[in-house]
Amino acid sequence: MPSGDRQNSRWRDALGSLSARLLVAFLVPTLLFVAVAGTAVYQLARSILEEELGTSLSAIAAATATQVHGERLLTIEPGDDVTGTRTWRNFVRMFESVAEASGVRRVYAVDTQGRVRVDVGGTLPVGTEMPELARDRLELTRVFSGERAASQVLFTGSDGRLYKTGYAPIEYEGSVVGAVGVEGSAAFFGSLQQLSRTFVTMGAVALGALAFIAVVTARGLARPLRRLMVSALRIGRGDLTTPVPPEPTLEIGVLARELEDMRGALESRDRQLKMMLAGVAHEVRNPIGGIALFSGILKEDLQAGAHDEAGAHVERIQREVAYLQRIVEDFLAFAREQPLARAPVEAPSLLSIACELMAAEASARDVAVDIDAAPAVLEADGSLLTAALVNLVKNAVQASPQGGRVRVSGTAHGGQYTIQVRDAGPGVPAPEHERIFEPFFTTREKGTGLGLPLARKIALAHGGMLSLTSAPGDTRFTLTLPLGAAPSGVTPPR
């Protein structure tokens, strides 16, 4: 698979993974919340309702027990329900009225051995042991000790519904002689289960809605990311001219702007590199042609025995080689990334050194160089600033007419130090004011066109600026630098 296709595949996999992760991030916490919260709420509601039902049934049992005469209850014997004794019928009528008034399903009375004495709503005859009491042994122990209680578990009746039992003791002369049991329906659990089903349904709907939102959000994120992906792949393939489109989303918009800045920087560097390569090729071609020409002539003269002519040809070849060496040195100086070695630098001393380095050339051209520098201390790389100032003074000296004057001044104002290099030459035409700072742009036959671009590059690296104003008879290069300390380790921009 081609590398571009593999890269596209990796990007698609990454975007698909983003969608899946967003989907999981939306759904899993919601699912856990619905499951845990729904179960907890259901169990809590059920527990509260069960406790409330038990309390209510035990209260009905207690109210019924207060109406039961313990001694008369114990007089009921097996068979009384068959013969219908008066005592048994009275208890039945009382229990039936309680059941009708309270809406419970069953009311019964048992002795301390668990044998039935009265059973309204049930089918057990008098004297029979109630098997249902076996499940509530602990509760009956408490009842027979004089407390009211309710069963801890629900049981299913013959009709398939859930029921619960409340108990209360029957006392006679300070002793517990039996217990009243009241069975009530837990019909509300049907509503609770319906509520639970409704909750589950709503949870499912919420999950579906969240899944839809997650998909929409994932697509909303994936689309701008896919556009950024396309732009990044386009830049990676070498297309540095197509701008990266802006994005409305804040975070992705920042990424788009940074990617566009990166593209612009790469395009500028690529354009500058091409310009530099073209400039080097152009500048190198002429001296190489001269070297080839003069070396050929030198060979012919030597073969012909014209040794007197050979010395002149050698000098010409040496001049062309020196020019080539200067081109290479200027090119390396401009292209090299050099971290700034900042240190306190006296501004007047800096200007004096730069002018001294150009004194010989100025004297050869009969040009005077004047210095007027106000005292100030710069936090700067002295060697780099010296190189920049030498280029400015050299340019002014070469532009000045014979017998002319170059003025170099420095003034401090508003936290900045301004250096001006002025000459009275013919000036720079307006269309060339900015082009003069482009690498390899020169109007001189033997100029490399790198001196002024290097000077501006050094100025920008120090947080300053280099500008030009020019008119016939008055051309000024203005170098503005900040006073005081500046962050160290700054690398000159390319």
In short:
This protein folds into 3 domains: 1-236, 2-Layer Sandwich (Beta-Lactamase); 250-333, Helix Hairpins (Orthogonal Bundle); 338-482, 2-Layer Sandwich (Heat Shock Protein 90).
Overall pLDDT: 80
Strand segment tally: 13
Order of helices and strands, N to C?
Answer: HHHHEEHEEEEHHHEHHEEHEEHEE
Q: Quick one: CATH superfamily of the largest domain? A: PAS domain
Any idea what the shape is?
Answer: rod-shaped
Helix coverage percent of residues?
55-70%
Continuous helix count: 12
Provide the gyration radius in Å: 52 Å
> What's the main sheet like?
6 strands, antiparallel
Quaternary state, please? Answer: single chain
Q: Which second-level CATH architecture of the largest domain applies?
A: 2-Layer Sandwich
Low-confidence stretches: 485-494
CATH topological fold name of the largest domain: Beta-Lactamase
CATH class of the largest domain: Alpha Beta
**What distance separates the N and C termini?**
37 Å
Strand content: 15-25%
Tally of structural domains? 3
Structural class by secondary-structure content: alpha+beta
Keywords: ATP-binding, Cell membrane, Kinase, Membrane, Nucleotide-binding, Phosphoprotein, Transferase, Transmembrane, Transmembrane helix
Domain HAMP: 219-271
EC number: 2.7.13.3
Protein name: histidine kinase
